[in-house]
Specification:
The protein is of the alpha/beta class. Helix content is 36%, strand content 10%. The chain has nine helices and eight strands. An eight-stranded mixed β-sheet has the order 1-2-3-4-5-6-8-7, covered by helices on one side. Strand 3, helix 6 and strand 4 form a beta-alpha-beta unit. Helix 2 runs antiparallel to helix 3. The radius of gyration is 19 Å and the shape is globular. Keywords: Carbohydrate metabolism, Cellulose degradation, Disulfide bond, Glycosidase, Hydrolase, Polysaccharide degradation, Signal. Belongs to the glycosyl hydrolase family 6. Pfam families: Glyco_hydro_6.
Length: 321
């Protein structure tokens, strides 16, 4: 059956859900419109393997990391954003695969942590950027992780800054709903060690979660899938009790094979986790962070910058040492 015919059938079958208490703002299910997840042909791991074929670590990194479906992150480095997202989802669509994209450009990004500080120049600049992001995807199937860390840490922010951030996220969801009807958007909800379930449920709801398909957990972190699943269920219990709805969630399993040692920034002794798949305790287990990419100038990545691919870290993460 062709992808387009599958897409039409999936959309028609799902139409009645629009009138029920459906978990998504959209009728279509992008996972049924495609034949599996997209492997980014230009990931940092793929590029390193291609550039270092004689390196003794290359075979293991290629087999265990580079060929696993992973998200591609988009930010100020991506150039004209609508062109960038359009090209990426277009390439995936040609292969009948489902791409996972991360939008990471919110104004005052990583405001409290600082390791990944940056983002759009203003709230209005972000609104323009995210509108183009969604427009580039258009009607093709995709999954989007919306602004990792944005709701996790409010510790250094004023109420005015919090309100501003939540308004930006609500506006972003409106753009995806308007322009990208076959995209599932997951609002990032940090991880179980950041905020209690009641606090996170309130933040998600106030930032517009009802408009999103779901929420994401553990992005770029190391906490076990079991702990994240328990937390996601607790957040949903709070959402149900306070606001009368629940949402699906996904977990980043890219680096949680050994769990956490309490450190978040390039800790030693971590291991890759369950590869990208549907189910597994959450709606999906996804590799959102590329194993081997630095969290910043810290830990075993001392001297590196956030996002830089470190082959030795990647190699050791395959084996858990």
């Amino acid at each position: 059956m062709s992808r387009r015919l599958r897409s039409l059938i999936a959309a028609l079958c799902a139409l009645p859900l629009a009138f029920a208490a459906a978990p998504s703002a959209h009728a279509a299910d992008p996972t049924t419109m495609t034949s599996g997840f997209y492997v980014d042909p230009d990931s940092s791991a793929k590029r390193w393997v291609a550039a270092n074929p004689g390196d003794g670590r290359a075979a293991a990194i290629n087999a265990s990391i580079a060929n696993t479906p992973m998200a591609r992150w988009f930010g100020s480095w991506s150039g004209t954003i609508g062109t960038a997202t359009g090209a990426y989802v277009g390439a995936a669509d040609q292969r009948d695969k489902l791409p996972v994209l991360v939008a990471y450009n919110i104004y005052n990004r990583d405001y409290c942590g600082g390791h990944s500080a940056g983002g759009a120049a203003s709230p209005s600049a972000y609104a323009n950027w995210i509108a183009q992001f969604a427009g580039g995807i258009a009607g093709r199937p995709a999954v989007v992780i919306l602004e990792p860390d944005s709701l996790g840490d409010y510790g250094c922010m004023t109420q005015a800054q919090i309100d501003e951030r939540e308004a930006m996220l609500t506006g972003a969801l409106a753009e995806f709903n308007r322009q990208a009807p076959n995209t599932w958007v997951y609002m990032d909800a940090g991880n179980p060690r950041w905020a209690d379930a009641a606090t996170m449920a309130r933040r998600l709801h106030e930032a517009g979660l009802r408009q999103a398909h779901g929420f994401s957990l553990n992005v770029s972190n190391y906490i076990t899938t079991a702990e994240n699943t328990a937390y996601g269920n607790a957040v949903n219990n709070e959402l149900a009790a306070r606001y009368g709805y629940t949402k699906p969630f996904v977990v980043d399993t890219s680096r949680n094979g050994n769990g956490t040692n309490g450190q978040w920034c390039n800790p030693s002794g971590r291991r890759i986790g369950t590869p990208t798949q549907k189910g597994g305790g959450a709606e999906m287990l996804l590799w959102i962070k590329t194993p081997g990419e630095s969290d910043g100038n810290c830990g075993v990545g001392t001297g590196s910058t956030a996002g830089q691919f470190l082959p030795e870290v990647a190699y050791k993460m395959i084996y858990g040492y």
